[in-house]
Amino acid sequence: MARKAAKKSAAKAQGTSAQKASTKRKTSAKKASKTAGKHVSAPVRPAPRPSAPKKPQTPAAPKRRAALERTTRETSVFVDLDLDGSGASTISTGVPFLDHMLELWSKHGFFDLVVRATGDLEVDQHHTVEDVGLTLGQVFREALGDKAGIRRFGQSTVPLDEALVAIVLDLSGRPYLVYELDPGQERVGDFDTGLVHDFLLSFINEVKMNLHVDCLRGRNPHHMIEAMFKGLGRALDVATQYDPRVKGVLSTKGAL
Fold first, then answer.
1. What predicted TM-score, i.e. pTM, was given to this entire model?
2. CATH number at residue 100
3. pLDDT tens, 78-99?
4. Most buried residue, 13, 19, 114, 174, by CB count within 10 Å?
């Protein structure tokens, strides 16, 4: 009896498993029938974002800095000049009024400037003032380089109380000075006011620039000369600035 019961139980289990397998096959067949003929698309992945185009690298502007020591039997002058500075200066020429004017020139032109000079001041101030102007002009021209990309022209009109001085200049490569500033007296303190003209003439001959100085009005010679040095710094700052529209040098000749 026990054997018969075991056989019946085994046969029943086999029937149940077969029935389940048959049902599973039928369900799968129905699903296949429903999807037959239909296009089943694969899951769409978002396209990778295109990377931003790299900006073209603008070439760095060349360093516009130069230094020179010039020594003669009369003077010894050292000048270090950075045209793209902040207006910092350290100046010692033995001529206090000239030191003051060069400090103003540096500050208002945003030029970093170091000047150290000794000279035969026991004779007079002429050699020192003239040689400082000459050496500064040589260093300025060297720092300026080939003048490619600069504006070339500059102008500035600067007031100082009653004084009003206009500066117009051209870094043309051709030196020329028009100096219309009459201080009305020979000295400011112990400084010979006539040496301002000599300083400028030495400077522009070395830079090779055209410079017009016009004192439109004034009474105090210190004010007039100070306004001139401030205006010269400002006008040179404009003329030496880069202009992205200028390709090469600003001249139809192709050279300055």
1. 0.77
2. 3.30.230.40
3. 999 999 999 999 999 999 999 9
4. 114
